[in-house]
UniProtKB/TrEMBL annotation:
<feature type="compositionally biased region" description="Basic and acidic residues">
    <location>
        <begin position="1"/>
        <end position="24"/>
    </location>
</feature>
<dbReference type="InterPro" id="IPR001132">
    <property type="entry name" value="SMAD_dom_Dwarfin-type"/>
</dbReference>
<dbReference type="GO" id="GO:0006357">
    <property type="term" value="P:regulation of transcription by RNA polymerase II"/>
</dbReference>
<protein>
    <submittedName>
        <fullName>SFRICE_000930</fullName>
    </submittedName>
</protein>
<feature type="domain" description="MH2">
    <location>
        <begin position="43"/>
        <end position="213"/>
    </location>
</feature>
<dbReference type="InterPro" id="IPR017855">
    <property type="entry name" value="SMAD-like_dom_sf"/>
</dbReference>
<keyword id="KW-0804">Transcription</keyword>
<dbReference type="InterPro" id="IPR008984">
    <property type="entry name" value="SMAD_FHA_dom_sf"/>
</dbReference>
<dbReference type="GO" id="GO:0009653">
    <property type="term" value="P:anatomical structure morphogenesis"/>
</dbReference>
<dbReference type="Pfam" id="PF03166">
    <property type="entry name" value="MH2"/>
</dbReference>
<feature type="region of interest" description="Disordered">
    <location>
        <begin position="1"/>
        <end position="32"/>
    </location>
</feature>
<dbReference type="GO" id="GO:0051239">
    <property type="term" value="P:regulation of multicellular organismal process"/>
</dbReference>
<dbReference type="GO" id="GO:0070411">
    <property type="term" value="F:I-SMAD binding"/>
</dbReference>
<dbReference type="GO" id="GO:0060395">
    <property type="term" value="P:SMAD protein signal transduction"/>
</dbReference>
<dbReference type="GO" id="GO:0071144">
    <property type="term" value="C:heteromeric SMAD protein complex"/>
</dbReference>
<keyword id="KW-0805">Transcription regulation</keyword>
<dbReference type="GO" id="GO:0030154">
    <property type="term" value="P:cell differentiation"/>
</dbReference>
Length: 213
C-alpha cells in the first residue's frame, strides 16, 4: 500500500488495515469554545478527548516531530517533548471512568506525529493498534470516510500537503474539515464495532493541521 513505509531503525511494516466506511461527525470538534485565530509558527494543534469530553486545552506544535504518550513508568517526567496525557486534568463521571482508565493504561509510548518532506506521518510506538480517520486517506471514497488500523510498530502517512483533499460534503454527514485527523488509541470504531462514532472511543486525539500559508 503506497501510503505506508517502514518505521525508523529498519523495522518492517505490513499494511495498515482499514475498516468499513464510517460516518463521522461533520467539521472539527477541537475548538470546543476555544477560538485561536493566529497559528504563528505552529504546523498543527492537538486536542485530546475522552468520549465526548475535551480534556485540557489545545496543544500547539512547532517542532517537526511531537510525541503523544501516557504517563506510565514516569514517562511524563522523562524529558520527552510532547503531550503527556496523564498530565492533563482528567474529568468525567464515574460511569465513564473505568473504560477510560483501562484504555489510557494501554497508551504507553503512544504515537509520534512527524512533519516530513513527503507529508505528515504517524508512527505507532505503543503495544496496541491505533485507528485513524483522515479526509486525505481514500479521498476518492465519495460517500464516506474510512478508518485505518495501524498496528504497533507501524506507520501511516495521514496527510500530504502537496495533495490536500478538497472540501467535501458527504451524505448524512454534511461538511467535512479536510485538515482534521482523528486518532483513537486501542479502540476502533465504525460499522463492525460497537462504537459507531469516534466520540464513543474512550481515548482519542484530534489533529488540526494549519491552513496553507
Amino acid at each position: 500500500m503506497e501510503d505506508l513505509k517502514p518505521k525508523e531503525h529498519g523495522e518492517s511494516t505490513e499494511d495498515a488495515r482499514r475498516t468499513d466506511h464510517e460516518r463521522l461527525v461533520s467539521g472539527s470538534l477541537a475548538t470546543d469554545g476555544e477560538e485561536r485565530q493566529s497559528w504563528d509558527s505552529e504546523w498543527c494543534r492537538l486536542a485530546y478527548w475522552e468520549l465526548t469530553q475535551r480534556v485540557g486545552r489545545q496543544f500547539g506544535v512547532r517542532l517537526r516531530a511531537v510525541d503523544v504518550f501516557g504517563g506510565g513508568g514516569g514517562a511524563c517526567g522523562s524529558g520527552r517533548h510532547g503531550l503527556c496525557l496523564d498530565a492533563l486534568d482528567q474529568r468525567g463521571d464515574s460511569q465513564q471512568a473505568d473504560q477510560v482508565k483501562k484504555t489510557r493504561a494501554k497508551i504507553g509510548l503512544g504515537v509520534t506525529l512527524s512533519l516530513e518532506s513527503d507529508g505528515v506521518w504517524l508512527y505507532n510506538r505503543s503495544q496496541e493498534p491505533v485507528f485513524v480517520s483522515s479526509p486525505a486517506l481514500d479521498a476518492a471514497a465519495a460517500k464516506a470516510l474510512l478508518v485505518w488500523r495501524v498496528a504497533p510498530g507501524h506507520c501511516l502517512c495521514i496527510f500530504d500537503p502537496s495533495c490536500p483533499p478538497p472540501a467535501v460534503s458527504l451524505p448524512h454527514i454534511g461538511p467535512v474539515d479536510p485538515r482534521s485527523v482523528r486518532i483513537s488509541f486501542a479502540k476502533g470504531w465504525g460499522p463492525k464495532y460497537s462504537r459507531r462514532d469516534v466520540t464513543a472511543c474512550p481515548c482519542w486525539l484530534e489533529v488540526l493541521l494549519a491552513p496553507p500559508s
